[in-house]
Structures are given as structure tokens and as C-alpha cells.
Design goal:
heterodimer; A: alpha/beta; D-Maltodextrin-Binding Protein, domain 2; 2 domains; 3-stranded parallel β-sheet; globular; B: alpha+beta; MetI-like fold; 4-stranded antiparallel β-sheet; two-stranded antiparallel ribbon; binds glutathione
């Protein structure tokens, strides 16, 4: 089925490309408004980032970004259609306009912007590739992994990073490559591989789902930089800016202490930064083609970055990933947003 | 009337140029070609402009860039620092390997099944029948996953690998055998082996001619003696050349076995699944072929006093082949096409490696075009070979 998806995706890409004079710098916003919903490309299921529950309701950090966008555009966080994509199919889906944006734990790399016709808007999660292995193998350090068999998901940065890592350390390994993350994890679980490589966040989320999480350990080393963030097609700057500022609004709200619970009170705050963010003073949203209260809507419906982090991957979730690099810049982390002014 | 005739003939001739069905047909074909080329030209042009507008790279330049990813099974030398073109070749060789193995094994097994289905022995024929019914009616993808999980579940983890004869290991990582490593001086051994082989061929041919002429074969004592001589001389050359072939025996490493050659479980599971699935279909083809040969042929054979085995081998099968080969050809083509399902269990075939290339470069159209061209070439080559073989068989038949 996944294979058919790719064929479908590619065929629709080819059909789009065959048409003469496709509007490339297309007003994505017009299409979204006409459709009445945002189509958001997500993963096929990584707890904490994008995963459907038994009723089909999606949740996660990447999902909340799309809900924030729907709040901005429609004042309704539920006007999103989620389109689950395998790592291999995701770029074709974006290129062929099957989705309005990818919000799918996708790493921002130069190659992807240079040749895939896409732009990354922001980094909503700083991550790195890491190894998960069985405790019984008694591995303390990634440098002990010489000769190991490693399960990898196709079409990801891991496929390249793992080769780089072993080459740089002059060690051998056996890559076993699967198309979906679930197949990869299953092969690791049945014992086909000694090691599973993934984004550290995905490894923690996967470990929590294994039969006996305590038998497995995620090695502390990060072997690569994986800045994950939402991406859009090149050529529509308005839409790119809206995605950027949706994330920045969440960061600024956390920095200013505006939360889902107190946003209504905060409208009468005397702090000029808060007043500008919530659209009480000035009318910055309109410049982007949005309403005055655009940021208020995000916080009201979805919450600020800290809240989103906490309930999806932080202490309020089963995964419990420390904020560290994803803490606000004021707390020693890297999450920083340009000012709303 | 008559004086007018030449003029009228001229007249008809002139109208004919416009109305002449032949001229019209050619003109129509030419028009069609022009239209088609124009459509193809504008399609390619549109794709190129649209790709450029969307800032998606295009062209085949990526093939000479460094690939940078690992591939678990490579029959030709491979490292991450080699190019995408090379990676594609590695995938292609893997596809051809599993197809070839499946074609060979499923042909042998399929013939056995087809013959067994027609066997007079009730149990044998029923067994063959149930095998065919079961395997033919389950989706191939399902069977591939079944064999893969079965192999992984049945095998011990690599640290407690089953050790056979000291240097063969069986585990979840596959079947690891000692690998012959060529040392300097191996060329002499190769030359010696060729010489012995040539001598053997000549002696066998000479003794066959002699038997045809005189009716006496080579005495058993002599042939045994000659074989021993051949082996002894090879051993002597091997030792004199300083044992130029050494075995690299697998060793238990921290995770896996190191050294030796390993047959991956992905390859084993995939080859088994393809073989069993195709053999069931080939069994049916063989059965149909045998049943297509007139009963009279068997009866004639029997009346000549031939035994059942000889009738099958000398009379039925050769004639059945003419029915079997064309159907077998399309089955072989199916095997080649089905070999693209290996990606579902992580076998690094053309689809798996090509998919990685596609994703890393983003050049979907180019990679898909390469896939289509490659599968088309393999398929056409296979059917050309089978057609040639079919023609040869048809000539031999009387
Ligand atoms: N961040 C990496 C990896 C992204 C990725 O696809 N990761 C896998 C496993 S770590 C995944 O999330 N799979 C989930 C899925 O396929 O739905 C990239 O952009 O290439």
C-alpha cells in the first residue's frame, strides 16, 4: 500500500508538471480558504509528534502547529485534514501540492532546500540522530557499535548519518533498510538488528511503545544535527511567513507568560509587547493577510510553545523529554523568536 | 468514346493523387507522427519548465555524485563514497541475483510438482495438488512476510549462533560461511584447473567416440584412476604455489560474526517465497503441457516396452516443452517483476536502493524513468532468450 502511495504521489506530480503554465507562486491561502481546511502532511504515527488516537483524532507537536495555523486562518483548530506520509513519500506529496505544508519531524537540510523546491519555515524541535539498543548487549557508547546490524528507515537523514558515523570512526556496520518506521521498529524488535537508529525524540517515543521498554536503552550521543520543522513549497512567501509567525507567536507567548488559561486576562495587560502580540495595539496581522487577533487565536485554541511541548513530549506526556536545547533562549536553550513589532 | 480514353485516364490519374488510399494513408501516418512528436516535445518542455519554476532539480547529473549511504548486500564492490550510478548498479545486481535464483529453483521444483500432480500415486498427487492450491491462492506479499518472520523467529540470535562443522554459522543475521580469499599465485592454480578440465573433456569425448565405434566404454578402473590423477595433480599445484586460496573463517564478534560470507535472511526469505510461489504456477504450466501431449504418444511408448520414466523423459516432456515454454516465459517475466517486492522486507533491490536515491536527490521523474527502462530491458532480454530457446526446441522436434 505504501508503495502504491508513492506511485500515486509521483504520478500526480508528473501530471501537475505536464500541465502547461502551472501557477507556481500560487496563493496557498486562497486554496486553503476555498477548501475550508488546511491539508497538513504528518508522519504515519510517532507519539508526541503526530499520531492518531483510536477515534482518529491526531495529536502531537507537529499536529499542534497545524492546529495553530487553522486557528489563525479559520479561528477553528479542527479545520485541518491530516495526511499521513512515509519518509519516502513526503517530499513528493509537498511538491505535487497534495499537502499545503509538511509538519512531519522533517530535518532542515541544505540539500532539501537547494534541490527539492521547498523552504523550511522554522525549527520547532532541535533534535539529533541517536541509537537505541538492547541493554543486554551492554553497549555504553556509540563507539562500541562496530560490526553491529542497524535497522534504518528509508528516505531519512539517518540513512546518510549512520554511514557517515561509521565511516568517520572507521567501523563496519550492516544497514537493513525498511520503508516505514513501523517495519523498521518491528525488525529491531524481532532481533534482526542490534540497533535502531532514529531521531532521538522518535527513539524515546518508540521505546515507550516497545513491549518491555526497560530492556532497551537510547544511547546518549547525538550523532547528527536534526533541526526539525515545518516546510512549504518555494514561491509563496505569504504562506511561508504565516507558518513562521504561527510558531513565533507560540514562542513569544511562552516568553511573555501568556498561556491558554490566562490569554483572556492578558488582553488587558499593560505590557506593550503583550498588547502587540494579542493585537490590542497595532495591526500587524493584517500585513500578513490575517486578522488582528491572529496570535490570540493560536494561544486560545492551542496554547504557547511551552504548553504544547509539555503536553506532547515533556513532563506532561509519557515520553518526558527534557527541554534542554528546546528551552527558551532565556533559559539556556535555542528556542528564540523575532519580536512582534 | 475511344478518342477520349487517354484524356480520361489522365484525369483519373490526377484525382487519384489526392484520393489514392495509399497516399492518404501515408499522409495520415505522417500527420500522426508530427502530432505525437509535438505532444512529446511539449510534454518534456512543460515538465522541464515547471520543474525549474518549482526549483526542483532535474537531469541525470546526480548520477555521478557521491551516494553516501550503506547497502547491506553488494555483489560488486561498494562503499558509501561511490556514486549514485554505482549504487543503482548494486541494486540492479541484487534484483538480478534473486530473480535468477528464483527462476532456477522454481523451474526445477515446479517441474517436480507438475509431474507429481499427474503421478499415479494418490498421496503424491494430492500433496502436489494441495501445495499448488494453497500457494497459488495466497498473495505473494503475504508469503514473503511469512517466510521472513518465520526465519527470524526460528533462528537464534547471533550471539548464540548455531555452529555447524566449526566454521558455518546460522543465526538471525543469516547463514555465514567461510570465504575463500584469493592470495597471490592463484593464477597458476586457475591455469592448472583449466588444463585439467580441458584434458577431462577431451578424454570423455574420445572415450565416447570409441564406444560408438567399438562398443566398448572406458573400463571403470581406468576412469577412476584418471580422476584420482586429476585431483592429485591439482592438489600438488595448490601446494607448490604456496596454497594461494585461504579460507576466511567467520568469527564470533561482539554483535555479529565477522569475516566469511553471509547470506542475509532477507535474501533467503525472499528467494524462498518467490521460489515456492512461482513453482506452484510452473507446476500448473507443466501439468497442462504434459496433458496437452496426446495419450497415444504414451501408449505408443508403452507398446514399445519403455518404462514410465523413460516415456516421460524421452517422449512426453520433449513434446510438452513446446506448450510449456511460451507459458514459462511469461512466468519468468512475472518473477522478474515480482522481484520488486523485496523492498517490503528490507532486501536491497533496485526498488529499495532506487527509492533511497530518489529520496536523497528528490529526482523522482528521473529515477522512475530509470526503473521503467531497467525492468523493460530485463523483461525484453528474458523473452528474447526464451523465444530463441523455443525456436531451438521447435527445430529439434520431429
Ligand atoms: N528527521 C529525519 C527523520 C524523519 C523520519 O521520518 N523519521 C522516522 C523514524 S525516526 C519516522 O518518523 N517515521 C514515522 C513514520 O514513518 O510515520 C528526516 O527528516 O529525514
Amino acid at each position: 500500500m505504501k508503495h502504491h502511495n508513492r506511485i500515486l504521489g509521483t504520478s500526480s506530480l508528473i501530471l501537475t508538471l505536464l500541465a502547461a503554465g502551472v501557477a507556481t507562486a500560487g496563493p496557498t491561502m486562497d486554496k486553503i480558504k476555498a477548501r475550508g481546511a488546511i491539508v497538513c502532511g504528518v508522519s504515519q504515527g510517532i507519539a508526541g509528534f503526530s499520531i492518531p488516537d483510536s477515534t482518529g483524532k491526531w495529536s502531537g507537536m507537529d499536529v499542534d502547529l497545524c492546529r495553530g495555523l487553522a486557528a489563525v486562518v479559520f479561528d477553528d483548530p479542527n479545520k485541518v485534514q491530516f495526511s499521513p506520509l512515509s519518509a519516502k513519500d513526503r517530499f513528493t506529496a509537498l511538491q505535487s501540492s497534495a499537502v499545503d505544508l509538511l509538519s512531519r519531524n522533517t530535518t532542515w537540510t541544505m540539500q532539501r532546500e537547494a534541490s527539492l523546491g521547498m523552504n523550511f519555515a522554522v525549527v520547532n524541535f532541535y533534535d539529533g540522530n541517536s541509537f537505541m539498543t538492547k541493554k543486554a548487549l551492554n553497549v555504553k557508547n556509540a563507539k562500541d557499535l562496530g560490526g553491529a546490524s542497524i535497522c534504518v528507515t528509508a528516505g531519512t537523514t539517518m540513512e546518510l548519518n549512520v554511514a557517515d558515523f561509521f565511516r568517520a570512526n572507521q567501523m563496519k556496520f550492516e544497514p537493513v533498510v525498511f520503508v516505514t518506521a513501523d517495519e523498521t521498529a518491528k525488525a529491531y524488535e524481532t532481533g534482526r538488528c542490534d540497533v535502531l537508529i532514529a531521531d532521538a525524540s522518535a527513539n524515546y517515543s518508540r521505546r515507550a511503545q516497545l513491549q518491555k521498554p526497560d530492556d532497551h536503552i537510547v544511547l546518549p550521543e547525538l550523532i547528527s544535527k536534526e533541526p526539525l520543522g515545518p516546510a512549504v513549497r518555494q514561491g509563496d512567501d505569504q504562506w511561508l511567513n504565516i507558518v513562521k509567525w504561527t510558531h513565533y507567536a507560540m514562542i513569544n507567548a511562552e516568553e511573555l507568560g501568556v498561556t491558554k488559561a490566562n490569554v483572556v486576562e492578558m488582553r488587558s495587560s499593560a505590557n506593550p509587547e503583550i498588547r502587540r502580540l494579542l493585537g490590542i495595539e497595532g495591526n500587524l496581522g493584517e500585513g500578513l493577510g490575517l486578522s488582528k487577533d491572529w496570535a490570540d487565536r493560536i494561544i486560545r485554541h492551542v496554547g504557547n510553545y511551552g504548553e504544547v511541548y509539555d503536553r506532547n513530549v515533556g513532563q506532561g506526556s509519557p515520553i518526558k523529554i527534557e527541554r534542554t536545547t528546546n528551552a527558551l533562549w532565556t533559559k539556556g536553550g535555542l528556542q528564540y523568536a523575532p519580536p512582534v513589532r | 468514346m475511344t478518342p477520349d480514353a487517354p484524356a480520361r485516364r489522365d484525369e483519373t490519374h490526377r484525382t487519384a493523387l489526392v484520393n489514392d488510399p495509399k497516399v492518404r494513408r501515408i499522409a495520415l501516418q505522417a500527420l500522426l507522427i508530427i502530432l505525437l512528436s509535438f505532444a512529446a516535445y511539449s510534454a518534456v518542455k512543460n515538465v522541464a519548465t515547471n520543474l525549474a519554476n518549482q526549483r526542483i532539480s532535474s537531469g541525470f547529473g546526480f548520477l555521478s555524485q557521491t551516494a553516501g549511504f550503506g547497502i547491506s548486500q553488494a555483489l560488486i564492490p561498494w562503499s558509501e563514497t561511490m556514486t549514485y550510478a554505482r549504487a543503482y548498479m548494486v541494486g540492479l545486481v541484487n534484483t538480478m541475483l534473486v530473480s535468477a535464483v528464483a527462476i532456477l529453483l522454481s523451474t526445477i521444483f515446479g517441474f517436480a510438482v507438475g509431474i507429481a500432480r499427474l503421478a499415479p500415486n494418490f498421496i503424491i498427487s494430492q500433496l502436489a495438488r494441495w501445495y499448488v492450491e494453497l500457494v497459488r491462492n495466497l498473495p505473494l506479499l503475504f508469503q514473503i512476510l511469512f517466510w521472513y518472520l518465520a526465519i527470524l523467529a526460528a533462528m537464534p540470535p547471533p550471539r548464540s549462533a548455531l555452529n555447524i562443522l566449526g566454521s558455518v554459522f546460522l543465526s538471525q543475521r543469516g547463514l555465514t560461511l567461510p570465504q575463500p580469499v584469493i592470495q597471490p599465485g592463484a593464477a597458476i592454480l586457475g591455469v592448472a584447473a583449466l588444463a585439467v578440465l580441458a584434458a577431462a573433456v577431451m578424454i570423455v569425448r574420445w572415450s565416447r567416440l570409441r564406444r560408438e565405434r567399438t562398443g566398448f566404454g572406458m573400463p571403470r578402473r581406468v576412469s577412476l584412476g584418471l580422476s584420482a590423477l586429476a585431483i592429485a595433480s591439482l592438489v600438488a599445484v595448490f601446494l607448490l604455489a604456496g596454497a594461494p586460496l585461504q579460507l576466511d573463517a567467520p568469527q564470533q564478534g561482539r554483535f555479529n560474526l565477522s569475516g566469511g560470507v553471509t547470506m542475509m535472511p532477507e535474501f533467503a526469505a525472499f528467494a524462498i517465497a518467490l521460489t515456492f510461489y512461482s513453482a506452484a504456477n510452473i507446476g500448473e504450466i507443466v501439468r497442462a503441457g504434459i496433458q496437452g501431449v496426446g495419450k497415444g504418444q504414451t501408449e505408443a511408448g508403452r507398446s514399445l516396452g519403455l518404462r514410465a520414466g523413460s516415456i516421460l523423459r524421452l517422449i512426453t516432456i520433449p513434446q510438452a516443452m513446446r506448450i510449456i515454454i511460451p507459458m514459462l516465459t511469461s512466468m519468468y517475466l512475472n518473477i522478474v517483476k515480482n522481484s520488486s517486492l523485496g523492498v517490503s522486507i528490507g532486501y536491497p533491490d533496485l526498488v529499495s536502493v532506487g527509492g533511497t536515491i530518489l529520496n536523497n536527490t528528490g529526482q523522482a521523474i528521473e529515477v522512475i524513468a530509470m526503473w521503467m527502462a531497467t525492468y523493460l530491458t530485463i523483461s525484453i532480454a528474458t523473452s528474447l532468450f526464451m523465444n530463441w530457446y523455443n525456436a531451438r526446441i521447435a527445430l529439434v522436434s520431429r
